[in-house]
Design brief:
Distance between the termini: 37 Å
Strand content: 15-25%
Helix content: 25-40%
Order of helices and strands: EHEHEHHHEHEHEHEEHEHEHE
Radius of gyration: 20 Å
Number of helices: 11
Number of strands: 11
Largest sheet: 7 strands, parallel
Strand order of the largest sheet: 3-2-1-4-5-6-7
């Protein structure tokens, strides 16, 4: 079977749960199927280049630039939505969706806006894997109303329940992200010292991740003694996080590591005493 995966960020973002999931599932699917990845950006990540898949790209406006930051400051739009909309506009100009229909037997989407845009442009069957949702907002309701996917699955039972309770939307099943036990083990190199009191966050530095709450909780812990908070990942609110840590007086105890290759994230897990995922 020829399987297509459509996601604006997987081409240029090395970190992020959805992006990592797409790369990992591509590795598994490519064992028995021909896989095509449709994404945006001129220079795709080495992680994506190493996959046994055909990668198609179009230009887009990447979030975090001065232009996109200005747009998000004056309009009710998120950076990732600007990315998706700009990819969609470029895809229309470059005949991207006609190519998808010609190349694959089924297309999988992984974000609300990508799904709402792409499923209205292609004729092949589509599978929408719904990511975690934070609230039953009007924005989510509107995007789901434009969903034309053939099959809709949730990334967890919790997401399925929230879709039903908050938005009155049903799913056809649940597909959890897997874990490679051979890759994630207690044996091997680690970042940091074993005796070091440390907390790890690993993921995107974006709104909705609960990172300002994490900084506030970390500041309270530091009142009893220094604790290192290591933030691994990049995103659009890093400068705001640095300012908040400085205001809390804990900037010297917060390490902004930046994005790391997926092959090295286990080193950070091994080196932390506590892992915290404050997303909500």
């Amino acid at each position: 079977m020829r399987i297509g995966l459509y996601n604006v960020r997987v081409g240029t973002y090395a970190t992020g749960g959805t992006e990592t999931f797409i790369r990992e599932i591509t590795t598994q699917l490519a064992k028995d199927h021909e896989v095509f990845i449709y994404t945006a950006g001129e220079n795709v990540t080495p992680e994506l280049q190493s996959l046994d898949a055909t990668v198609r790209t179009v230009p887009f406006l990447r979030g975090g630039t001065r232009f996109t930051n200005t747009l998000t400051g004056i309009a009710p739009i998120h950076a990732h939505e600007i990315e998706s909309l700009s990819m969609y506009a470029a895809a229309r100009r470059h005949g991207f969706y006609d190519r998808i229909d010609a190349e694959v037997d089924v297309l999988s989407t992984h974000s609300l806006l990508d799904n709402a845009l792409a499923t209205r442009q292609v004729d092949v069957p589509t599978v929408f894997r719904v990511p975690g949702i934070r609230q039953g907002s009007f924005r989510w309701r509107q995007l789901l109303s434009r969903d034309r996917s053939t099959v809709r699955v949730a990334n967890s039972e919790a997401t399925a329940d929230r879709l039903d309770e908050w938005l009155g939307a049903a799913v056809d099943g649940v597909v959890y992200a897997g874990l490679d036990l051979n890759q994630f083990s207690s044996d091997g190199p680690s970042v940091g010292q074993p005796e070091e009191a440390s907390i790890l966050y690993l993921g995107r530095l974006d709104d909705g991740k609960g990172l300002f709450d994490l900084l506030a909780a970390h500041a309270r812990l530091c009142e009893a003694g220094p604790v290192l908070l290591r933030l691994v990942g990049d995103g659009g609110i890093e400068d705001d996080l640095r300012e908040r840590a400085a205001a809390l007086g804990t900037l010297d105890h917060v390490e902004f590591v930046g994005a790391v290759p997926h092959s090295r994230v286990q080193e950070h897990y091994r080196g932390a005493q506590i892992y915290c995922l404050p997303s909500y």
